[in-house]
Amino acid sequence: MSSVIEYTMQAKPGQYDKVMSAYIAFxxxxxxxxxxxxxxxxxxxxxxxVIRGIGVFLSDSEALDVVxxxxxxxxxxxVADLLTEVPVRTDLDLVHVFVK
Length: 100
Prior knowledge:
This protein has a 4-stranded antiparallel beta sheet with strand order 2-3-1-4. It contains 3 helices and 4 strands. Strand 2 and strand 3 form a beta hairpin. 37% of the residues lie in helices and 31% in strands. The longest helix is centred in the first third of the chain and has 18 residues, at 16-33. The radius of gyration is 13 Å and the shape is globular. The model has no long low-confidence stretch (mean pLDDT 90).
């Protein structure tokens, strides 16, 4: 079964655009180099400062590998001072997909 990782960050006031730009750059680079990730979504709300990344992986073990991947660690470290709190990672099972 595919695994879904949701990674939620809360940008400090005035830092949303910087964090979002960094997340998009990370997601694009990570997607290019990580063949086990099927889909990457980056969502956000500029008013509240919430940014969520959602990644779909082939398996739980591949999703777990992301936490220690140097590319992810570098990204996380690069935005740490721009966030109000420690990001929250949620592991989910992919139950259903409908694409039109």
